[in-house]
Specification:
By secondary structure, the protein is an alpha/beta fold. Helices cover 36% and strands 24% of the residues. It has eight helices and nine strands. It has a six-stranded mixed sheet, with helices on both faces. It has a three-stranded antiparallel sheet with strand order 7-8-9, with no helix packed on it. Helix 1 packs antiparallel against helix 4, helix 2 packs antiparallel against helix 4 and helix 5 packs parallel to helix 6. The longest helix has 15 residues. The chain is globular.
Length: 233
Amino acid sequence: MVKSALIAGLCAFANPAEACRLALVLAIDVSSSVDAAEDQRQRAGLAAALIAPDVQTAFLSNPDPVALFVFEWSGRYNQDDIVPWTLIRSPNDLLNAAEIILASERSHDDFPTAMGYALGHAAIQLQHMPQCLFRTIDVAGDGVNNEGFGPAAAYRAFPFGDVTVNGLLIASTDDTTPDPLFFYQTQVIRGPGAFVEVAQGFDDYEDAMRRKLIREVTPQVIGSYFLSTGQFE
């Protein structure tokens, strides 16, 4: 379970009513296809990625903060929150989030991959950060949906009108049908500029997460309109 003292300390930084440039939900896969060692590698990899210098620079390169939320998912009714909504204003905020992730323990290890339910949970959490300019969900996993409704049904049933969904696929050397990469590319990612980042196994999780986070949290420029100023040049 998440250490209560760390949660209490991190909650002091969170203020859901404060405006932010991006609300970012990270969903990590703890389904039965992920063994205990792989789960530890992904938690350690995510924690390390959050405090990597280039990731910190991307998070803090704009005065408007990023709001971060992290949860783990597996079966239909197995979504467990790890890091509550937290506004990232300093390196210390990222360090606190990384410490919570490292201290967390897997809640379940014997359930299938109910990705539609995970996406629904993420969409509901985004409703608690209404002041953010952009909203992004990142779903990390090593396989396709195999329980309950899939991503398409989730996109119809939950509030995804202005939400981008990216994916982090943990690739395997095994030949599987259907192909997980094709599944992520055609059924999971959603919205303008959505993408799939591929980790070549769990040992590559940290580097893939670092690349993905930099791409997601770097402030966006639309034409000559820089979002931090609110003015046309």
